[in-house]
Design brief:
By secondary structure, this protein is mostly beta strands. It has 4 helices and 27 strands. The strands form 7 sheets. Strands 4-11-10-6-7 form a 5-stranded mixed β-sheet. The chain has a 5-stranded mixed β-sheet with strand order 13-21-22-25-24, with no helix packed on it. Strands 3-5-9-8 form a 4-stranded antiparallel β-sheet, with no helix packed on it. Strand 15 and strand 16 form a beta hairpin.
């Protein structure tokens, strides 16, 4: 047995013939192994397994066909390889601090007749560098289009990039560049049109790679939009009547914040004694000549927006002493109860008359029924006394 200059073990042909001569057959034996993926700098484990071993010799070779382990002996002068397990059924070896140069096909070899080989491919994964996210503009006006790019460098294999705007998944345009050292640089560009609702929403580029999880970078959208305007009535709470005061407040927000708020009356002048203080409009002692539409206009660098309030002045006693509102629900309930009671009474009366149905005659009427003609019937109906004498009995 000889060791080569590179430190690997070279098995002489005579030894192989000797082993074969002693009947180390491959009958019923099965040599298997598994491919390995490992992150650069971590530890890979190669397992050569034998089913139904009959004491055949097993060894592990590197991609250059140099012997790493012959049974439980390590001829290769690389201390990163360590024996994890050696038995009749397995040769398991670990390789620590894996680098790209360790990538390749490793050979599990079983000395049988004929010899068997199984192959374990070691794939070295290089995680990508921190993603760099950039926007074409830091601040975008609503309705405009912007572009955001995300770049990750130095990965193996090439990473993929997906985009999230809030909870919405988006797709960008991706380019992949392979560098001289078999690494990959990936860049994705996302183009989108923004609205005011996008202001402050995070846009994230998510890096997908087998060597890392939950790897991402994000940037918050900064969107400028014209003001949103709403007029709020401070006083009065109800009808605007003659002689009362009116107080209106113009609520306006935008990005940037509105720099000017203006009150005016549409198609007319604001009453001379109206007081405008910033966003507030105050008019005292209302009368019907003040009726009309009052408009509040807010402005910023993006544009203008407005809201209107329609003023109608009622008589001074409008709405005062008006009859109370009738509760139609209560009235409907009462009517329903009355109708129900009447229906019940009708049902009871109907049942009563049905039980006492029949023909009733007075004694006079019975006499009229027995008469031979009309005259006799009248006489009998009037009392039927003509025959009474015949029915008298006398006692002495």
């Amino acid at each position: 047995m000889a060791i080569s200059a590179s430190g690997s073990l070279s098995i002489p042909l005579a030894v192989l013939m000797f082993l074969a001569a002693f009947g180390l057959k491959a009958q019923g034996q099965n040599l298997v192994t598994d491919n390995v993926s490992v992150v650069e700098g971590e530890t890979a484990t190669i397992s050569c397994r034998i089913k139904n071993n009959d004491d055949s010799v097993i060894q592990l070779l590197n991609p250059n066909r140099q012997t790493i382990y012959f049974r439980d002996v390590r001829p290769l002068k690389d201390s990163r390889f360590q024996l994890v397990n050696f038995s009749d059924n397995e040769l398991r070896v670990s390789l620590s601090n894996v680098s790209l140069s360790d990538e390749g096909r490793y050979v599990c070899q079983l000395y049988t007749d004929p010899p068997q080989e199984a192959y374990a491919d070691i794939t070295v994964l290089v995680p990508p560098g921190n993603p760099i996210i950039e926007a074409r503009e830091d601040v975008v006006r609503e309705g405009n289009e912007t572009e955001i790019s995300c770049t990750t460098m130095g990965s193996k294999p090439a990473a993929s990039i997906t985009w999230l705007k809030g909870d919405q998944e988006l797709t960008g345009e991706t380019t992949v560049e392979e560098t001289y050292d078999r690494m990959f640089t990936v860049t994705s560009r996302l183009t989108l049109t923004v609205t005011k609702e996008d202001d402050g929403v995070p846009v994230a580029c998510v890096i997908n790679h087998p060597a890392v999880k939950d790897f991402m970078a994000q940037k918050y959208l900064q969107v400028q939009y014209k003001p949103e305007v709403k007029i709020v009535v401070g006083y009065p709470e109800g009808l605007t009547r003659e002689g009362e005061n009116l107080e209106l407040t113009c609520k306006a927000k935008g990005k940037p914040q509105p720099i000017r708020i203006t009150w005016f009356k549409v198609d007319d002048d604001v009453p001379s004694h109206a007081v405008v203080t910033g966003s507030d409009l105050f008019i005292e002692n209302l009368n019907k000549s003040y009726n009309g539409t009052y408009r509040c206009v807010a402005s910023n660098l993006v544009g203008d927006a407005f809201d209107d309030y329609n003023l109608y002045v009622y008589d001074s006693r409008a709405g005062v002493g008006s009859p109370q509102k009738i509760d139609h629900a209560v009235i409907g309930g009462v009517v329903a109860v009355v109708v129900f009671i009447m229906l019940c009474l009708l049902i009871i009366l109907g049942r009563y008359f049905a039980r006492h149905k029949g023909t009733y005659f007075t004694h006079e009427a019975k006499g009229a029924d027995d008469a031979a003609d009309a005259d006799t019937a009248i006489i009998n109906a009037e009392g039927g006394h003509c025959n009474s004498d015949n029915k008298k009995e006398y006692y002495i």
